[in-house]
Amino acid sequence: MAQANDKYLQIISNIKKGELKPVYLLMGDESYYIDSITDTIIENALDDSERDFNQTILYGLDAEISSLINTAKRYPMMSSRQLVVLKEAQMFDDIDDIILYVEHYQPSTVFVINYKGGVLKNKKLITAIEKIGAVYEFKKLYENQVPKFITDYLQNYFLKIEPKAVAMLSDYIGNDLSRIAGELDKLRIVIGDSKEITAHLVEDNIGISKDYNNFEFLAALVRKDVYKVNKIINYFESNPKNNSIIPTIRMMFNFFSNLLLMYYAPDKSDAGLLKELNLKTTFQLKEYNTAKNNYNVFKCVDIIALLREYDAKSKGVGVSTSTTDASLLRELSYKIMH
Q1: 325-337 and 226-238 helices cross at what angle (nearest 10)?
Q2: pLDDT of residue 3
Q3: 55-59 and 82-87: which strand pairing?
Q4: Cα–chain center distance at 297
Q5: Which tens digits make up the pLDDT trace of 237-279?
Q6: CATH label of the domain that carries residue 162
Q7: DSSP three-state, residue 84
Q8: Measured between alpha carbons, how far is 127 from 124 in angstroms, rounded to an integer?
Q9: Distances (CA, A) of 46 to 16, 49, 68, 74, 271
Q10: Which residue, of 14, 130, 164, 335, is most buried by count of CB atoms within 10 Å of its CB?
């Protein structure tokens, strides 16, 4: 999974170079990659002058198998190829019958099957497509993979982003890649002549507080800054809609799990720890070094157990319905820091 974005970038690169397959099956739970590849094929398969007669976009809910096959089988007009796209293919009742086309495909047609929300179950069809074209499955990224997606996305536009700004975006939005891409596009417009997106820019344009977010909360917890921890919890309490405890606990769990790994890492040099903890910068490593000074290995084990307990409580296990996220977080933070 760690290579999901690299795989996507390579596919995009091949398409832009004109290296197109006769059939693409794009499937999985991550719609961003599926739609982005589909759009890139649409943008690059034909010139503008060729599209009127050689581009057909169908939708699974309305498509008919006989019409789809006839369209895909026809020859291009005044062009070397034609493009047929089946969007929302997961809604297509006759999806299994696509094999009738795949087994006798038209080499001058590029046929794209856009299948979202899961994977195609028909292994015979998948095998047939693999023989002549390409099958790609895209799963949702884990949240610790989102920062790389953000930096890769901006690198494509020759832009940089501050580590804190990356953390703010990934923490606030999570692994909704379509939304992240939309927010990054917004930032690209407002950045002007600058080549780096800063935390201030994110705060001013995305509506994320640079001082009151999970990233700053974790940093205060690591430092055992009781005043700052409670100040941020009070802010969360006043904005409960945008500050659920669940992503906060998840972020804390990932951090302290990594801290435990740090204690047992065979190579404790900066380079060794960056590799062991799957971190990208020494900026991220600084937080772990601070945490190591404040939380010994035994406390770290206790914290992980606490986080499991409060994760269950945050989902309603063993607490009254009137219990708020802020009260749970306040209680959890006290137990961690004392």
Answers
A1: 170
A2: 67
A3: parallel
A4: 32
A5: 998 888 889 989 998 999 999 999 999 999 989 899 988 888 8
A6: 1.10.8.60
A7: strand
A8: 5
A9: 11, 8, 19, 16, 47
A10: 164
